Predict the structure.
Amino acid sequence: MLKNILLTIGFLLAISASYAQEGFTVKGDTLTRTPAPADTAKYVNPGRLAGRKAIFRSAVLPGWGQYGNGLNVYRGIKIAAIYAGGTVLVMSYMDNNRQYKVYLKELQYRLEHNDNPDPDGSLQRYTTTGLVAAKDIYRRNREVVIFSIGALYAVNIIEAYVDARLKYFDIGNNLALKISPTVIGSGSMYGYNTTFTPALKLAFRL
Protein backbone atom coordinates (compact mmCIF):
# COMPACT_ATOMS: atom_id res chain seq x y z
CA MET A 1 0.00 0.00 0.00
CA LEU A 2 2.73 2.50 0.99
CA LYS A 3 4.70 1.52 -2.09
CA ASN A 4 1.75 2.36 -4.37
CA ILE A 5 1.27 5.73 -2.70
CA LEU A 6 4.96 6.62 -3.14
CA LEU A 7 4.83 5.60 -6.78
CA THR A 8 1.73 7.72 -7.34
CA ILE A 9 3.33 10.76 -5.68
CA GLY A 10 6.50 10.32 -7.74
CA PHE A 11 4.46 10.05 -10.94
CA LEU A 12 2.57 13.24 -10.12
CA LEU A 13 5.80 15.09 -9.34
CA ALA A 14 7.28 14.02 -12.66
CA ILE A 15 4.20 15.26 -14.53
CA SER A 16 4.26 18.59 -12.69
CA ALA A 17 7.95 19.01 -13.50
CA SER A 18 7.31 18.39 -17.20
CA TYR A 19 4.45 20.91 -17.15
CA ALA A 20 6.74 23.42 -15.47
CA GLN A 21 9.27 23.03 -18.29
CA GLU A 22 6.78 22.98 -21.20
CA GLY A 23 3.59 24.97 -21.10
CA PHE A 24 0.27 23.95 -22.61
CA THR A 25 -2.66 26.05 -23.75
CA VAL A 26 -6.23 24.81 -23.85
CA LYS A 27 -8.14 25.36 -27.07
CA GLY A 28 -11.57 23.85 -26.90
CA ASP A 29 -11.18 20.23 -25.89
CA THR A 30 -7.57 19.88 -27.01
CA LEU A 31 -4.24 20.70 -25.44
CA THR A 32 -1.71 22.59 -27.54
CA ARG A 33 1.93 22.57 -26.56
CA THR A 34 3.37 26.07 -26.14
CA PRO A 35 6.75 26.29 -27.92
CA ALA A 36 9.74 27.16 -25.80
CA PRO A 37 11.01 30.71 -26.23
CA ALA A 38 13.70 30.90 -28.87
CA ASP A 39 17.18 31.86 -27.86
CA THR A 40 17.60 35.50 -28.81
CA ALA A 41 21.39 35.32 -28.82
CA LYS A 42 22.60 34.93 -32.42
CA TYR A 43 26.16 34.32 -33.50
CA VAL A 44 27.60 37.05 -35.69
CA ASN A 45 30.53 36.15 -37.93
CA PRO A 46 33.03 39.00 -37.48
CA GLY A 47 34.83 38.12 -40.70
CA ARG A 48 31.67 38.37 -42.77
CA LEU A 49 30.72 41.66 -41.14
CA ALA A 50 34.20 43.07 -41.73
CA GLY A 51 34.06 41.89 -45.36
CA ARG A 52 30.80 43.74 -45.99
CA LYS A 53 32.22 46.91 -44.48
CA ALA A 54 35.34 46.57 -46.64
CA ILE A 55 33.23 46.19 -49.80
CA PHE A 56 31.18 49.29 -48.99
CA ARG A 57 34.21 51.40 -48.11
CA SER A 58 36.23 50.36 -51.17
CA ALA A 59 33.25 51.00 -53.44
CA VAL A 60 32.79 54.52 -52.03
CA LEU A 61 36.49 55.43 -51.98
CA PRO A 62 39.24 53.17 -53.37
CA GLY A 63 41.74 52.33 -50.64
CA TRP A 64 39.32 53.04 -47.79
CA GLY A 65 38.59 49.34 -47.40
CA GLN A 66 42.29 48.54 -47.00
CA TYR A 67 42.64 51.40 -44.52
CA GLY A 68 39.62 50.17 -42.55
CA ASN A 69 41.15 46.70 -42.23
CA GLY A 70 43.93 48.19 -40.13
CA LEU A 71 46.68 50.37 -41.51
CA ASN A 72 50.15 48.85 -41.60
CA VAL A 73 53.10 48.89 -43.99
CA TYR A 74 51.68 46.13 -46.20
CA ARG A 75 48.25 47.74 -46.54
CA GLY A 76 49.85 51.17 -46.98
CA ILE A 77 51.80 49.83 -49.96
CA LYS A 78 48.58 48.46 -51.46
CA ILE A 79 46.82 51.81 -51.06
CA ALA A 80 49.76 53.59 -52.68
CA ALA A 81 49.74 51.07 -55.54
CA ILE A 82 46.03 51.61 -56.11
CA TYR A 83 46.39 55.36 -56.41
CA ALA A 84 49.64 55.19 -58.40
CA GLY A 85 48.07 52.79 -60.89
CA GLY A 86 44.92 54.91 -61.06
CA THR A 87 46.94 58.06 -61.70
CA VAL A 88 48.92 56.44 -64.53
CA LEU A 89 45.75 55.09 -66.12
CA VAL A 90 43.95 58.43 -65.93
CA MET A 91 46.92 60.25 -67.48
CA SER A 92 47.09 57.63 -70.24
CA TYR A 93 43.39 58.07 -70.92
CA MET A 94 43.73 61.85 -71.17
CA ASP A 95 46.67 61.57 -73.58
CA ASN A 96 45.01 59.02 -75.86
CA ASN A 97 41.75 60.94 -75.84
CA ARG A 98 43.56 64.16 -76.78
CA GLN A 99 45.43 62.49 -79.65
CA TYR A 100 42.24 60.84 -80.84
CA LYS A 101 40.49 64.20 -81.06
CA VAL A 102 43.43 65.76 -82.94
CA TYR A 103 43.41 63.06 -85.62
CA LEU A 104 39.62 63.04 -85.78
CA LYS A 105 39.54 66.80 -86.30
CA GLU A 106 42.03 66.53 -89.16
CA LEU A 107 40.00 63.79 -90.82
CA GLN A 108 36.81 65.81 -90.51
CA TYR A 109 38.54 68.79 -92.12
CA ARG A 110 39.76 66.71 -95.05
CA LEU A 111 36.33 65.19 -95.47
CA GLU A 112 34.80 68.66 -95.80
CA HIS A 113 37.58 70.06 -98.04
CA ASN A 114 38.00 67.41 -100.70
CA ASP A 115 40.73 65.46 -98.87
CA ASN A 116 42.99 68.52 -98.52
CA PRO A 117 45.01 68.81 -95.27
CA ASP A 118 44.35 71.56 -92.76
CA PRO A 119 46.94 74.32 -93.45
CA ASP A 120 46.89 75.37 -89.80
CA GLY A 121 47.22 71.82 -88.49
CA SER A 122 50.30 69.78 -87.62
CA LEU A 123 49.30 66.63 -89.54
CA GLN A 124 49.77 67.85 -93.11
CA ARG A 125 52.48 65.30 -93.91
CA TYR A 126 50.23 62.32 -93.06
CA THR A 127 48.02 60.63 -95.61
CA THR A 128 44.33 60.13 -94.97
CA THR A 129 44.84 56.37 -94.63
CA GLY A 130 47.52 56.92 -92.01
CA LEU A 131 45.29 59.34 -90.14
CA VAL A 132 42.47 56.79 -90.04
CA ALA A 133 44.81 54.09 -88.71
CA ALA A 134 46.24 56.42 -86.05
CA LYS A 135 42.76 57.55 -85.00
CA ASP A 136 41.66 53.94 -84.56
CA ILE A 137 44.76 53.11 -82.52
CA TYR A 138 44.19 55.99 -80.10
CA ARG A 139 40.51 55.13 -79.84
CA ARG A 140 41.34 51.51 -79.05
CA ASN A 141 43.96 52.54 -76.52
CA ARG A 142 41.41 54.80 -74.84
CA GLU A 143 38.94 51.93 -74.56
CA VAL A 144 41.60 49.62 -73.12
CA VAL A 145 42.49 52.24 -70.50
CA ILE A 146 38.82 52.62 -69.53
CA PHE A 147 38.57 48.84 -69.11
CA SER A 148 41.78 48.84 -67.05
CA ILE A 149 40.43 51.54 -64.72
CA GLY A 150 37.30 49.46 -64.15
CA ALA A 151 39.40 46.36 -63.50
CA LEU A 152 41.57 48.24 -61.00
CA TYR A 153 38.45 49.46 -59.21
CA ALA A 154 37.07 45.90 -59.02
CA VAL A 155 40.39 44.48 -57.82
CA ASN A 156 40.49 47.15 -55.12
CA ILE A 157 37.10 45.98 -53.80
CA ILE A 158 37.87 42.25 -54.05
CA GLU A 159 41.26 42.62 -52.37
CA ALA A 160 39.80 44.62 -49.46
CA TYR A 161 37.09 41.97 -48.97
CA VAL A 162 39.51 39.03 -49.02
CA ASP A 163 41.91 40.84 -46.68
CA ALA A 164 39.08 41.53 -44.23
CA ARG A 165 37.94 37.90 -44.24
CA LEU A 166 41.47 36.53 -43.83
CA LYS A 167 42.02 38.91 -40.92
CA TYR A 168 39.51 36.87 -38.89
CA PHE A 169 40.39 33.48 -40.36
CA ASP A 170 41.89 31.13 -37.76
CA ILE A 171 43.70 28.08 -39.08
CA GLY A 172 44.24 26.76 -35.54
CA ASN A 173 47.28 25.09 -34.05
CA ASN A 174 46.75 21.68 -35.63
CA LEU A 175 47.97 22.66 -39.10
CA ALA A 176 51.47 21.32 -39.66
CA LEU A 177 53.78 20.83 -42.61
CA LYS A 178 56.50 18.20 -42.63
CA ILE A 179 59.17 17.73 -45.28
CA SER A 180 61.34 14.61 -45.09
CA PRO A 181 63.76 12.90 -47.49
CA THR A 182 62.71 9.65 -49.13
CA VAL A 183 63.52 7.43 -52.09
CA ILE A 184 61.36 6.34 -55.00
CA GLY A 185 61.89 2.90 -56.47
CA SER A 186 61.63 2.50 -60.24
CA GLY A 187 61.87 -0.77 -62.12
CA SER A 188 61.62 -4.21 -60.57
CA MET A 189 63.01 -7.65 -61.08
CA TYR A 190 61.70 -10.74 -59.30
CA GLY A 191 59.63 -8.48 -57.05
CA TYR A 192 62.59 -6.33 -55.94
CA ASN A 193 63.28 -2.70 -56.89
CA THR A 194 66.43 -2.35 -58.91
CA THR A 195 66.89 1.45 -58.99
CA PHE A 196 66.13 4.20 -56.50
CA THR A 197 65.63 7.95 -56.97
CA PRO A 198 66.07 10.41 -54.11
CA ALA A 199 63.04 12.64 -53.44
CA LEU A 200 61.33 14.77 -50.80
CA LYS A 201 58.10 13.79 -49.08
CA LEU A 202 55.64 16.55 -48.18
CA ALA A 203 53.05 15.79 -45.51
CA PHE A 204 50.23 17.98 -44.22
CA ARG A 205 48.44 17.59 -40.91
CA LEU A 206 45.05 19.27 -40.63
In short: The first strand starts at residue 24 and ends at 27. The mean pLDDT is 79. The first helix runs from residue 2 to 21.
